[in-house]
Amino acid sequence: MANLWPRLVYALALILLATNVAADDHKPYIYASPPPPPYVYTSPPPPPYIYKSPPPPPHHESPPPYYYKSPPPPPHHESPPPYYYKSPPPPSPSPPPPYIISPHPLHLHLHLLLTSTSPHHPHLHHLPSIRLQVPTSPITIPTSSLCL
């Protein structure tokens, strides 16, 4: 195997030398055909231009002149007579005045009496009282607690 390497190197050097010599000796091929002749246009000339005048414009008739006519007057109509207000007559028996309820301190006393826990106040048992009828139960109010 040791004898193979020097022979392989000599063979490779010989191939490279032969390729280099052959490449220098051979010249490349150059295409040397003659150029084509120039193109010459030989079509016939166009026919001469003949001018044709345009047709005349159509005959335009002007409209008749405008005459102003005023509109007819509006139709005459009568306006209704003016409105006169007539107040209604007063009622024959005049109605009673409205009844106005004003808040009274009695309401506060009633509330205090209704919310007390004792059935009888210790100091009011000897005073005269006013008896009021409420739809659910009767309530007795001493006259000393009323402020009139």
UniProtKB/TrEMBL annotation:
Region (Disordered): 51-98
Keywords attached to this entry: Signal
Secretion signal, residue range per the UniProt entry: 1-23
Domain of life of the source: Eukaryota
Identification of the protein by name: Extensin
Organism: Quercus suber (Cork oak)
Lineage of source species: Eukaryota, Viridiplantae, Streptophyta, Embryophyta, Tracheophyta
